[in-house]
Amino acid sequence: MAEIESNNFQNFINYMKTSIWQNSHSGKQPIRVLKHNLTARLEARNKKYIESLQSDYRLHQEILYHAENLPLLNGQMPFINDNGLINIHETFLSYVWINCYYFYVLHEEKYAIPNLIAQGKMESRPYSAELLSEAEDLFRYALTLVKGFTDWDKDVLPNPEYFDEESPQGNYILHVNDLFVEVLNFILYHETAHAELEHIKKVQLNQLENEERKPLEIEADSRAIQLIMKNSTSRQKAEIAVVMGLASMLFIKNSLKGGSTHPDVDQRIENAIEILQPSADSEIWTTLCLFLKAWDLQYNFGLIENSNCKTIKDVFYDLLQQAKTL
Questions:
Q1: In what order do the strands lie in the sheet with 86-89?
Q2: Residue-wise over 226-237: b if at least 16 C-beta within 10 A, else e?
Q3: 63 pairs with which residues across the strands?
Q4: C-beta separation of 32 from 25 below 8 A
Q5: 121 with 178: CB under 8 angstroms?
Q6: 242 burial class (0-12, 13-18, 19+ CB within 10 angstroms)?
Q7: How many CA atoms does the CB half-sphere of 193 hold within 13 Å?
């Protein structure tokens, strides 16, 4: 009976779905429908800053959008080149959107909403299990994008292009679209910070070795955090966007190592925490714990949640310390 009900639920969702794709949405993956939202918000929130960088040619007038169906590890990570041209790749955007969707739904349906139901502030939701199951299937798809590429099944998996706005899934998609744009604005600010602080010139003029380039990445992170916090309409959303943007890098490899030119992921996350100074009950701690637990499940590390921890902040730092010893 449960299987029949599940199929009926999915058939109902599919029946009500509509596509928001238009001819102006160039690209190959469903994330293409949000392409223009990324730059529109960035320009709207800090137009003078962007124009100042462009006026003295530190930052190119355009962003180069790559729409190839390639895995993340095949050169699909964002970067800014010698001419100040920011390069952004569709597979990376898809990967980040899916991370946003999965962890947002996971937080709400597994923790926040059950807590409200237990307090009598909300009625139970019969479709909660379906939403979680779909989000988990979507997240598993995202993990496959690291080393391989298959098409995003719009008929089956949640996505920003083909959905029913009135459904519970559609409601999440609309919220996640907004969060995703905020995450990408943080990432784009990281790239504009490289231009503003003339990091590329420093690398070339000083012939910096790989290890000497890593502090520049922390510096770009710090400036990006400063910019997004200053120009965001919601401090809470901006904080979550920062940690999601950084923590999404966890699933790309089975260690915290950042690579030859980038700092380790834990260093970047702890730098962000130092700047943001979140309260002990901030959603940042829950979000980061969920990321670490998902990373643990992905690679079977065997991280253990210490029952003696008194706060979710303590849980995070305990899990992170375990992760550092791997």
A1: 63-66, 86-89, 79-80
A2: ebbbebbeeeeb
A3: 86
A4: yes
A5: no
A6: buried
A7: 19
Q: What is the DSSP letter of 28?
A: S
Max Cα–Cα distance, the chain, nearest Å: 69
Token pair for 110: 């597994």
Q: List, run by run, the mean pLDDT of 10-residue segments along the chain (326 residues).
A: 45 72 95 95 92 96 96 97 96 98 96 92 89 97 98 97 95 97 97 96 89 96 97 93 98 95 97 96 95 98 95 97 96
What is the distance between the alpha carbons of residues 23 and 36, in angstroms, rounded to a whole number? Answer: 13
Which has the closest alpha carbon to 224: 61, 66, 67, 80?
A: 80
DSSP of 210-233:
HHHHHHHHHHHHHHHHHHHHHS-S
3-state secondary structure of 165: coil
Of 167, 34, 172, 29, the C-alpha closest to 100 is: 172
The Cα 34–Cα 133 span in angstroms is: 24
Q: Is the pTM of this model over 0.85?
A: yes
